Amino acid sequence: MSLGKDHELVNLFASGSALVFGLIWMFFGNQIINSLLPVQNQNIFYYFFSGVIFSLACVGLYGFMRTILCFTEFMVGHDNLNAQLYENLLSEEDEGVFLKNKNGIYKIISPVAMQVLKLENKQVVGQTDEDIHKYATANKIIHEDQRVLEFGESVYWETYITTSRGNEAYLCKKFPCRDSKNRVTGIIGVCKNISQLKKSQNANRHMEDRYRNLFNKLPYPVLVIDSSSLLPFTFNSAMNNLLGYEKEEFSRMRMSLHIEADYLNDFRDSITELNSSHGGEFETHLITKNRDVLNVTGYAQEIIIEDKAYLHMMLYDNTETKKSTDILIGSELKYRSLFEHANDAIIIVSTNSLNIIDANEIAISFLGYMRDDLLLMSIYDLDSSVNHALTQEKITDLEIYNHALYEQDIKNRKGEKQSVEINAHKLNYGNEDVYQFVIRNISKRKETEAALKSSESRYRQMFESNMAIKLVIDPDNFHIEDANPAAAEFYGYSIEELKGMDLAQINILSRDKLNTLIKQTREQNLGFYSCPHRLSNGEIRFVEVRDGPMEIEGRQLFYSIIHDVTASKEAENQVLVASKMFDYSTDAVMLINDKNKVVSVNYAFTQITGYQQSEIQNKSPEIILASHDATLLNKNVLESIDDSGQWKGEIWHRLKDGQSRPLSTSINSIRNENTNVSSYVVMLTPRHTQSIEQDNQVHFVELTELPNKSLFVDRLQNAIDRAQRNKNRLGIILIDPKNFSDINAQFGYDLGDQLLKAISKRLKYNTRDSDTISHFSSDDFAVLIEDLGDIQQMGIVAQKLLSTLSEAYQTSEHTIDLEIAMGISIYPDDGNQADSLIARAQTALLTAQYFKGSHFELTSASMNHNAKMWLQTEANLHTALRNNEFFVSFMPQIDTSTNTIDSMEALVRWNHPQQGCLLPAKFLPGAQQSGFIGAIGINVIDMALKDYRTWLDLDLPIPRLTLNICYSQIDTDLAQILIEKCDKYNIDYQRIGLEFSEKGYAQTTDSQRAVLHQIQSNNFHICIDDFGSDNSSLNCLLHCTVTEIKIDPEFIAKTRESLEAKNLLTGIVSLCKSQNIQIIAEGIETELDRDYLNDFDIHHMQGYLFSQPLDSKSVQKYVKRITQKK
């Protein structure tokens, strides 16, 4: 057994002493014996001690040599062990190491190893495990060390420690340290951090468990097969359920046993093709356990499991789908026809994204959006509420019950609320489930219900009061069902006597006259009617009666609230008015008070003049006169009334549609008890006695109920007069179904009449309320379009009508296709009289009839070219949005005083397939006209913010992103869109600026400016572009809150030539400083421009001097280059 180093020093001392004694005895032993012993004993003792000392010298020599060799292990061997340690660890990548010699003494240990072995703050080097650890731990370690030293084994273990980074896992290993002769000279220990490996293993284990669970729960059949033997490797329960086998039974069967014989070779070929292409779609026929044949399609993908290729197959049973294909095709055609020609608005919504994927023309007209804009919206975008709770609830109902019927307030494009009834269903649309929302406008019904609830509420409050006289009446027999104490007191009957009493016992008017009076009151929207009532003592009292419907215990009754107005002077006049109205009820009657204001009119007045009481009440009676300068109660009229109490004559009356006609007129005065004139009764009689129905027969076509040619020409001339005054354009479209005579000959005139009605209906649905539609002749129609913006707008309207009218017409027995020709003329381009405009339109119509199919023509080649170019632009814009052809470039804005970037301005570009890169001036006007500007704007905002987020993640110093916004984009949705997009990319609102042209900003309405204030309240910046290009510049600064303005380059150029312009620029700079508005100079191309503007204290600039427009990656390089220059 080897001793420690201290023991070897003792051995060295003893061995050396023995050798010293041996040498002394060798040289001085004889002398010592001679001096100490007698002569006779000297020889004996000499040899005896010589033998003993020789033995000691031999032992000492052995010990000395042994000690020297031991010291060699400790001293010289120490370096050898270090060398062996490094040699053994050359291929290891470890964080902690330690080294022991064969005696278990630690020679080297790293700080990480001390931390992992929990030996911090201990003296380790030069110590054994027995010195460091407790008995049990030391014995365990010594036993492991013996395995390493004696058998050359490696010992592994894992341990966990707590560091500043949290709990970390380490894998530790002990293995032999060998010299160049492969002899074991010690023990090496290494410790490696495996925390990341542990996390990855846990994640993989979790993903494997999730995959296994998901695989078993998949609702559709999944099968993994050996592509050579066609034996199942694994499958889910849906697969064996599909074929009707038990799991164990199915697992032993080849797939060829489940394939119909006629399709087996095709299936094998499909497997071969799938193997060669590593995956793809397939179709086959499977046979179930019950011998049923299933038509199955699916997708297969090659996967590798344990170095062997398998096919992973997902299957779909479309047997029923195949059977119903023909039925679906027929029903789809019928549904589409009903969808397009329904009377209600219909929108189709995706069940996955809740985005609108289709809408009929009624929906587009009702909501006010262009079709393409509507198809970019979600069903939530129509909800006027903030949290969309009702919509979410009904979507849930649709998923559960497949149907929902509810009422809701939605908003149109202008942000106006509309009360609608929505009948929603979940149905199959093509190959996917969708939600169909049938929307019916019930705004008017809601108003009526609100009025009814209001009147019921008033009734309940008044019936509970003893001050008002109240009766409840059965409308079937006019018997009094109930009365309150005030009624009993007023009429002089008890409540029991009033109950069951016939109303005729207290009302002097006959039943017929009372019905007439009530009918007139309701038709004229009067709140009450006046009549005489008889009390129990025979006294006649004049009363005002206010009544309305009510329901008591399921019975439909009506209530009457009665006010005694006999004693009131105001009531006396009203009684006289009522009497006069009945006296002259065969003619139009209008009551005027002494202040020349209309008090009331009768039913005949409404029918003859077209004015409702609500439209004329409390207004001057001159509203009905044809001449604006005429006075009804003029001096001659009043003098005649004073002399004879009456005036008769003729007035010219202006109808609501603008026509004028004479009316025979009689005006009578009504005097009060003081003989003073309190009112005038005006009776009007048409000079020609034809009825309203006769008038309609003259001006309207009975079949289609549309204005005829005569009325159309009259309205056209009036429209021309208005357009001249307002300096507007208008247009007319003449429409001719080219093959209509052939259809009449083939199918008969009854079907022809049905087509004419259908055409008129489609025209009504696809034009504005302000437009005039006319049944111009036997099978021709005309449309008058007022307030035209430009000729291109007329082309868009014509194309819309052309497309709508050319769609197939579905009758009960036939499907009819019409070819439509249209001729268009424009005021004032084609004339300033109705006759000339119609003549020019007829000429264009003749030209259109020569073209095959449906076609429209304007009066000149240039007009046709411009209109059709705009239509082509609209189609191209639609394609560009679908193909993502728009992209964004960025223009830096520089602070020249610090040479830093202020902002990046986003500029939209169109990568046109034929024309290359187009600038905004080439396509934005068309986008605004066609309504695509909203969709393009949303795409640009999203792309620009996405790039900005990338720059921010790269820590590029770009304080702000500026977005160009067209004034037509400023609507109630703009703020929400900006907020949603910024939240999507986690961008602070104050980093975003919105830029509007000065001219565009000047055109904004009050509601649009309110939207801008809302945007600014969310910390978005507002910038006015092209400042100085319009005469409203200073007005914009004074009336809007902006943070930046951009000076127009042309205005800057003027300052070099004009002292006035130069002084104005100085004033603008001073004004902006006082208002804390930053000025940016545009179009800076030279250093002279920069220095010139610096003299005006303008340091924020943009232009080609600094950079051309850049793509996103070029921006990154540009910013880094600018930053390095600093």
Automatic annotation (TrEMBL):
Domain PAS: 207-250, 331-375, 455-525, 580-620
CDD domains xref list: EAL, GGDEF, PAS
Domain EAL as annotated: residue spans: 870-1123
SMART domains documented for this protein: EAL, GGDEF, PAS
Domain GGDEF: 728-861
Domain of life assignment: Bacteria
Coiled coil: none
Keyword terms: Membrane, Transmembrane, Transmembrane helix
Record-linked Gene3D superfamilies: 3.30.70.270, EAL domain, PAS domain
TM region positions: 12-33, 45-65
InterPro entries reported in the protein's UniProt record: Biofilm_reg_signaling (IPR052155), EAL_dom (IPR001633), EAL_sf (IPR035919), GGDEF_dom (IPR000160), Nucleotide_cyclase (IPR029787), PAS (IPR000014), PAS-like_dom_sf (IPR035965), PAS_4 (IPR013656)
PANTHER family in UniProt: BIOFILM ARCHITECTURE MAINTENANCE PROTEIN MBAA (PTHR44757:SF2), DIGUANYLATE CYCLASE DGCP (PTHR44757)
Name of the molecule in the record: GGDEF domain-containing protein
Gene source species: endosymbiont of Galathealinum brachiosum
Upper classification of the organism: Bacteria, Pseudomonadati, Pseudomonadota, Gammaproteobacteria, sulfur-oxidizing symbionts
